[in-house]
Specification:
24% strand, 261 residues, globular, 37% helix, alpha/beta, seven-stranded mixed beta sheet, single chain, Rossmann fold
Length: 261
């Protein structure tokens, strides 16, 4: 049986969970890649626009072209920024960007690479679209290393003989695989680094409610009856300490950057 397809069709649910986690990585990541102000950016797989908004606010871009294949995500994203912001929201997949060669100074993917059907093609497309000397960079949760924000829930699902739905290309999210992809695309000055971030929830209920919209576990929870969901919820709560007060969790993303020759 083929695993369920992960679809992104609810920008608000994505914001409650992954959008907020992503922003915790976005700020140090953008500092790390250090693209100059006034640059032309491509945000590949922009989703609901959480990273795009951070880029706009932090990097003073001359322009941003933000691409995503999901009309629902783009509809949510368009509400994030002023109408006169130099941002275009465009429906397109990572492997076929509707831009000329060398059209941008920087191309980035935020939590996207492991969803691209052919990751090497996605990287090659970013390289094509960036000028010589431009930056190509990405970050993604360290899925094999347990860096995903919902790793605890994924572990507890195993007790039911079930598993969370992983991104289809989860193996590319390691530092070693990311570096190999960037070097294989012909980029120079390739470097990688992990980012560990923390997020505090008011209580366990807030964490659990945010997780319910996750595309990695939503389809599994939909197949559980109420008793199974309650049991899973309690096992996760106990695993996270069992308290009712504020809850601080960690996640880890791996980042990679390189320069087009």
């Amino acid at each position: 049986m083929n695993p369920p397809t992960i679809r992104f069709d609810d920008g608000a649910a994505y914001e409650r969970l992954m959008g907020r986690w992503s922003l915790l990585v976005a700020e140090p990541f953008l500092d790390w890649i250090a693209v100059p102000a006034g640059s032309r950016w491509l945000d590949v797989g922009c989703g609901n626009g959480a990273f795009t908004e951070c880029l706009f606010q932090r990097c003073a871009p001359a322009s941003v072209q933000a691409f995503d294949p999901s009309p629902a995500q783009l509809a949510y994203a368009r509400q994030r920024l002023p109408a006169d912001a130099p941002v275009q929201w465009l429906e397109a997949g990572a492997q076929h960007l509707p831009v000329p060669d060398a059209a941008a100074d920087a191309a980035v993917m935020a939590l996207v690479l492991f969803f691209v059907p052919e990751p090497a093609e996605g990287v090659a497309e970013m390289v094509r679209a960036v000028r010589p000397g431009g930056c190509v960079a990405a970050y993604h949760w360290d899925m094999p290393g347990g860096g995903f924000p919902l790793a605890v829930i994924a572990e507890e699902l195993k007790g039911f003989g079930r598993r969370a739905t992983p991104p289809p290309q989860a193996d590319v999210s390691t530092l070693e695989a990311s570096e190999a992809l960037w070097r294989g695309a012909g980029l120079r000055d390739v470097s990688t680094r992990p980012f560990t971030v923390q997020r505090t929830f008011a209580n366990f209920a807030e964490y659990w409610d945010s997780a319910g919209g996750s595309n990695t576990i939503r389809s599994t929870l939909a197949e559980f009856d109420a008793e199974q969901v309650a049991t899973l919820r309690e096992r996760v709560r106990v695993r996270l300490g069992g308290g009712d007060g504020p809850l601080t969790l960690s996640a880890r993303a791996n980042a990679v950057r390189g320069t087009r020759p």
